[in-house]
């Protein structure tokens, strides 16, 4: 015993330092390989064809993962899920499932060490299908000018899910972004389930046609004088009834408001008229720029009295 104590006492400082370094190394390695993180991930219940999940509790589980810092940094929460594959003995029954690490997918090198809650209760039903109307897509944003009007096809989709819940099924689409748009366009948007128990949507997307309607204004110019346009040298014998008309200008507000009253010209085309008489002729309107502007005269025709020279 004395000899053993003498051996232990020999170079005891070095031996104590070695033990301390070994302990430190152990805890460093243990710390690097025993880091834990917690994630709430979805619980995905898979059943046989013809069977649907009527209800499940819970829908998400809290999982503790353990591993090295490198393993845990490699975890992608979007890829993590708990998967349970069941064979329902009774389409109208329920089943309790014990969750283990084998049910966790997407963990890569990390190890699931705890799942809360550790059990799930799944209720089954017969799977059925039902066509339901699809509400119009929501329009997001504003076009550069005017407003957006949409049309979409199809307006009905076919849903699959638990028979007892299909009557309360809801679906909607992704929004249609029209921010800053200047012209018509078409796009496809996904149909999204409004209920978590919907198993399939047909078709999965719809085609949307967007028409940009420009806001228009109408402006009325009264008593615009009508002039005869003719090839005769002397038009002194031409009488117009009435001699003036009201002109209506319609189009984009910016363009319509830029039209000066003095720039609007109304005329009747008398070219080719040589015999004295009474003629009903249409009133023509001339603007400096006719692009994207519509004009009309009231009355649209006037009487032209052509006398002898």
In brief:
The protein has 309 residues and is mostly beta strands. It contains four helices and 24 strands.
**The CATH C-level class name of the largest domain:** Mainly Beta
Percent range for β-strand residues: over 45%
Helix share bin: 10-25%
Structural class: mainly beta
What does this entry look like structurally?
The protein is mainly β. It has three domains: about 30-125, Beta Complex (RNA Polymerase Alpha Subunit, Chain A, domain 2), CATH 2.170.120.30; about 135-215, YbbR-like domain (RNA Polymerase Alpha Subunit, Chain A, domain 2, Beta Complex), CATH 2.170.120.40; about 215-305, RNA Polymerase Alpha Subunit, Chain A, domain 2 (Beta Complex). It has four helices and 24 strands. The chain has helices at about 1-10, 10-35, 70-75, 255; strands at about 35-45, 50-55, 60-65, 80-85, 95-100, 105, 110-115, 120-135, 140, 145-155, 155-160, 170-175, 175, 185-195, 200, 205-215, 215-230, 240, 245-250, 265-270, 275-280, 285, 295-300, 300-305. The strands form six sheets. It has a five-stranded mixed β-sheet with strand order 6-4-1-3-7. Strands 2, 5, 8, 11 and 15 form a five-stranded antiparallel β-sheet that branches. It is elongated and about 150 Å long. The model has no long low-confidence stretch (mean pLDDT about 85).
């Amino acid at each position: 015993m004395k000899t053993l104590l003498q051996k232990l006492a020999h170079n005891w400082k070095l031996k104590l330092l070695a033990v301390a370094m070994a302990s430190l190394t152990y805890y460093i390695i243990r710390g690097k390989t025993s880091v834990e993180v917690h994630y709430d991930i979805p619980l995905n219940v898979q059943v046989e064809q013809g069977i649907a999940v009527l209800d499940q509790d819970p829908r998400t589980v809290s999982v503790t993962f353990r591993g090295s810092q490198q393993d845990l940094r490699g975890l992608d929460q979007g890829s993590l899920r708990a998967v349970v594959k069941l064979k329902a003995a009774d389409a109208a029954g329920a089943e309790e499932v014990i969750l283990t690490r084998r049910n966790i997918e997407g963990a890569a090198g990390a190890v699931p060490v705890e799942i809360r809650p550790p059990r799930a209760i799944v209720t089954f039903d017969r799977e059925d299908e039902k066509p339901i109307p699809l509400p119009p897509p929501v329009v997001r944003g504003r076009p550069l000018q005017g407003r957006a009007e949409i049309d979409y096809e199809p307006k009905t989709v076919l849903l699959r899910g638990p028979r007892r819940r299909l009557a309360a099924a809801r679906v909607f689409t992704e929004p249609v972004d029209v921010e800053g748009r200047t012209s018509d366009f078409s796009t496809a948007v996904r149909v999204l389930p409004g209920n978590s128990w919907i198993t399939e949507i047909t078709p999965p997307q719809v085609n949307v046609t967007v028409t940009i309607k420009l806001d228009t204004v109408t402006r009325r110019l009264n008593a615009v004088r009508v002039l005869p346009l003719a090839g005769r040298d002397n038009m002194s014998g031409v009488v117009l009834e009435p001699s003036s008309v009201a002109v209506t200008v319609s189009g984009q507000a910016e363009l319509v408001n830029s039209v000066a009253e003095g720039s609007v010209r109304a005329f009747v085309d008398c070219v080719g008229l040589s015999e004295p008489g009474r003629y009903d002729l249409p009133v023509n309107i001339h603007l400096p720029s006719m692009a994207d502007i519509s004009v009309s005269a009231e009355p649209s025709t006037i009487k032209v009295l052509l006398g002898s020279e």
